[in-house]
Amino acid sequence: MLETTCPHCGRRNRHHMAVRAGAGPPTPGNVSLCIGCFRPAVYENGPAGLRLRLPSADELSTIEANPQYQRAVRKLRDRQPDRRPDSSPDGRGAAGRREVNC
Asked: Bias category Basic and acidic residues: which stretches (predicted)?
């Protein structure tokens, strides 16, 4: 099981789901959308395997302009209309523990 920590809010995410069917597990350069804070991060290789990092300003512009990313954000928000993005490091109080990979 791949466990990652959101570099924005510190939420630990244990489950991952690809936006595209058949995309397989995340790889370096893939974008992740935290279910806790709804913000994007980028997978990179770290000393202990894959980890998430903040996107650069250029990457963030590209990510936010991507229709697939925009749809993923809308889907997350539509599934959880009664709560605001969670900013607690452990993700407690947020519904679900999933991270969506774009």
From this structure: 78-89
